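# nightly structure sweep
# worker-07 picked up a monomer target from the shared queue
# config: single-sequence mode, recycle default, output format = structure tokens
# input follows
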Amino acid sequence: MSRTTKSATEFATTTYDAARRAFSDFSGPFSPRKFTQPQIVAMLALRQFFKLDYRGTVDRLREWKELRDAIELRRVPHFTTLIHAEKRLLKKTRSPGCST
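# output follows
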């Protein structure tokens, strides 16, 4: 049963829980341990939810404590962290024959 929500904190919690089941905490043994992959995925999903750019997403997270608590975020990343993570995640999901 699917349902939609207008609550950003509920959306963040649901997205974070799903990402925790789908992704390991870190992409590799030598990756920085500042943010987990599920946290990054939740932040990128929030970017789409709010229809914001990367800087706007970081600003919204900085201002909204309940949102940070929902994804267990102790500190807010620099906006370029989200850019690089999104590129990395998209690269992993593209199939070899895909031209887009």
